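Name: Dienelactone hydrolase family protein
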Amino acid sequence: MCDDFTKEQEDEAIRRMKLSRRQFAALSGTAAIAACAPNEVDAVSGSDPGPGTSSSREPLLLTKASEVSFATPDGTMDAYFVHPHPGTTRKKSPAVIMWPDIAGLREAYQIMATRLAEQGYAVLAMNQYYRNAKAPVLGSFMEWRTDAGRAKLRPMIDNLDSFAIRRDAQAAVEFLDAQDAVDTSRGIGSCGYCMGGPFTVYSTAAVPGRVKAAASFHGGGLVRDDAESPHKLMQKTQASYLFAIAQNDDAKAPGDKTALRAASESSGRPAEIEVYNADHGWCTIDSPVYDELEAERAKARMLALFAGL
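Structure predicted for Dienelactone hydrolase family protein:
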């Protein structure tokens, strides 16, 4: 995931923006998002993008957000919790656990969590690196591509095996089920990007009676030889799945989609599996390969999946 193979596509995208890798890495937060998708930033700030611009966003529910923390078996998780504002809806909301990409919880994922909450969900965006540091560990995706960013994250990544993520998912479900904004009569969804892709499956395996849907976007490590491979864990779940695969990931491992389909059939778990016309990282709004059209199409499929919660 996020390897040298995808680096080639990122470099090409950065060249199209007429920036150097160093210049793009220096951008963070809204500045980096603006470099990739200026219309999206206008929509978040509430300003009018102006005539002639394209934005697929529609006026949606107002939201209420807070930085939260809760106990896990391994310490205290910090996270970003956002849900429809009580003044805009009389209904409680189904919950979603959001797993960020390898660069971790940061402003880009707070924005992405908020946009999902605007659709009527109570979203908990996780800091998967809480065992080592509070979020944000990195300010933008491209910091991961720097020597300093890689050196900072590598020891943290070593703590994130499937069992650790399952423990975190169990704690997240307990937190969500205790919130007034959450409709506990509905199932919980999980979505994840890059590193977070397999975490969505670990979540469904951790609490199969509660986490009933998982959406993986350009997820890495979904098909492996070990017993904890996500595609092998599907048989232990009660969930439905969306696997949105990047075209360059598929070119590198074309058999993964076949293995995922076989796992869906053998486990009896419904799964939508599609290779998108976009490169690894296309759904993350501060990624240099962010593709708004394909990201919105993938998001629409996630919303269709979560409608069944």
